[in-house]
Protein 1
Amino acid sequence: MGAANKGTLVVKAGVKRLLGRVGFDIVRSTNHRQGVDDFLPFEATMRAARAAGLSVGDYLDDVMNGTPGATQSTIDKLGGLGVFAAAPRTVLEIGPGSGRYLEKTLKECSPERYEIYETAEPWAAYLVETFGVVARPTAGASLAATPDASVDLVQAHKVFNTVTFLVAARYFFEMARVTRPGGRIVFDVMTENCLDPEAVHTWATKGGPGHDSYPAAMPRRACVDLFASLGCRLEAEFLAPLGVASTEVLVFQKDFDTAG
Ligand SMILES: C[S@@+](CC[C@H](N)C(=O)[O-])C[C@H]1O[C@@H](n2cnc3c(N)ncnc32)[C@H](O)[C@@H]1O
């Protein structure tokens, strides 16, 4: 068990029950930094998945989140867009957590290197051991250990709606920096397309308590314009389930004629 796991506080039982219903059971490190230290309790989640006879990813989808097949559906849509057919040699994932997208990504392609940036030490250690990925030092919003233009596929799922605007924005610059010309950038953000009045009402009445920064919204245009300014063109978008409502998955391709 890693140091971060030993130093965790279990949040109040009532809050945990409610968070469990919306797919967000968390522990919080005593070394709390800007909401980045909230993560699923490693041991308890693994135990529950084993008891249910499911992989941890399927346990999260089927039991905790009540959205069976949600991760596979996103992976299938990315497959349909040719993201995996491009045979990425290097993949980088921010905030893989339990590895539910990581595991399914590795079924679709065979990268030579899969880097992760994950603040939850017990999960990062588990992913390194189980899938042979490379865990990079993770300090808030930097991909400093990854050289410029070195990654074919950069992805983050259900991460940017759990961190502050500044953490997300800083990561966006870094994601554009490390992506190779022609490479893909895939992530989801809770945009205006996920926030009609009914969804806002659902969040306000049923979602989110007990977590400082969840769910965080991100203006879609700001996001798309920023990536365009960094030489990354929006290729596709689709909605996916998030907690009590939805999130928007955006797929960008970095221009072939940019080094930026
Ligand atoms: C809601 S979970 C999503 C996990 C996984 N991507 C999934 O969809 O199952 C958010 C993940 O991001 C991680 N995280 C939070 N802040 C981070 C940061 N600043 N850098 C990297 N990972 C972070 C958390 O530890 C957690 O594993």
Protein 2
Amino acid sequence: MQQEQNEQTIPQSTRKAKLYGVGVGPGDPNLITLRAVEILREIEVIAIPKSKMERESVAWEIAQSHCPSGVSIMELEMPMTSNEEILQAAWQKAAGLIRAELDLGHSVAFLTLGDPSLYSTYSYLLTILKNQLEPDQIETIPGITAMSAAAARVNLPLAIGDEPLVVLPGIEGLDAYEHYPNLVLMKVSRNLPAVLNHIQKTGSQAVLATRVGQTGEEIRLLRPEEEMEKVDYLSLVLCKRDGSEDFE
Ligand SMILES: C[S@@+](CC[C@H](N)C(=O)[O-])C[C@H]1O[C@@H](n2cnc3c(N)ncnc32)[C@H](O)[C@@H]1O
């Protein structure tokens, strides 16, 4: 509240430009926070991470209706690769472009699908820019994660009581968690066979949630006997060892 009052009373020309890491939620335009909307309405530059420049950005589709019509768009290429050198180069380049806008006095909103603190390229930019900016030049605005939206969609708790919740960025190391009651498996698109194998081995119940809150949303039970190779990149699996009746 203090910060808002300050922003209202300090003229724009003398205000320090800020980097906002904006979580826009999983896809449903109603699942974006009031703070995110407030920032998007006033922002000068929108930074959109893209794995391939020709692809549409889901985060931008969600944010677009809240942004001023003349807002500047900065598309940042963030290749999907495990090559550390390519990644470092992309992050440094993106951070440099954002920094240049901030130096011109333009505030920048970097959009993230879901929450910016969960498996987002925003975190890598933050590591670089934290060393270059004043602490009050950075504001991270949390968003509703895809896993929260998926759990809500099927009216299931992610975890209750003293149960742990394990969130994995894929299937690497999955065997180590076979006794855990609640797993969330992100980035499963190419890993379905391993997920199905895990369900069969552990007798778990699992829900596959694709494009939650977006056009093309699909949510369904995963059966261990089915054959699936690949699903949409925007898919995750909620996996529970017990409570099968909750899933029906
Ligand atoms: C780079 S991570 C981004 C996570 C995001 N920051 C969040 O808070 O949910 C990308 C993975 O998130 C999951 N994801 C993101 N949006 C989704 C959606 N609308 N529906 C289902 N899964 C989604 C998928 O597992 C996808 O592979």
